[in-house]
Amino acid sequence: DAKTTQPNSMESNEEEPVHLPCNHSTISGTDYIHWYRQLPSQGPEYVIHGLTSNVNNRMASLAIAEDRKSSTLILHRATLRDAAVYYCILSGSGAGSYQLTFGKGTKLSVIP
Amino acid sequence: DARVTQTPRHKVTEMGQEVTMRCQPILGHNTVFWYRQTMMQGLELLAYFRNRAPLDDSGMPKDRFSAEMPDATLATLKIQPSEPRDSAVYFCASGLVQGRTAGYTFGSGTRLTVV
Predict the structure, then answer these.
(1) Which residue ranges of chain B lie beneath pLDDT 70?
(2) N or C: which end of chain B has fewer CB within 10 A?
(3) How far apart are the first and last CA of chain B?
(4) Are A46 and B105 a contacting pair at CB < 8 A?
(5) How far apart (Å, rounded) are the C-alpha atoms in residues A65 and A54?
């Protein structure tokens, strides 16, 4: 399985932008880049996913490097509610599976 | 918003007892996952289904765990017999995959305690 590398933890001030990095140097051409987050005592929550082009939705933006070996999840204005563990996951059509394999993620703390 | 419903939310059972956890995926979703989360191991994929057929259950201890989808509206995860090391939060997730990946929706989980 293609692996991702994320920092263990990050801090951000409230109402400031947050850039969460993810390295995936062994990504294959058919792997999508997914981001999920898990708030305390809750199940994981889908944030965003993309293949090659940058993506925007109401929650966040996903910036994908041209060589696809890294990506960045951008929270435009962090709130206290964004404090969570953020997971960067590769999911693709290998064996037709599209499964999600979670790593340890990045624990984001938001400082008031 | 549509939700993945898991029951029960909490379960305390004695070692050796059978435990059944249920999941109602979102209507129309064709892919269902079962995950287990512990502090030590994080989120582990146990099994997953596509169009009710099991695709992979290699993450599941075969001697005591079983996962099924008797119909499109119900997925079950059974542990028999249960052991204290099975204590964890079990999550179900569903999504629609049609030749390309999709975002998956997770349930709120079943917190299992085996004493």
Answers:
(1) none
(2) N
(3) 36
(4) yes
(5) 9
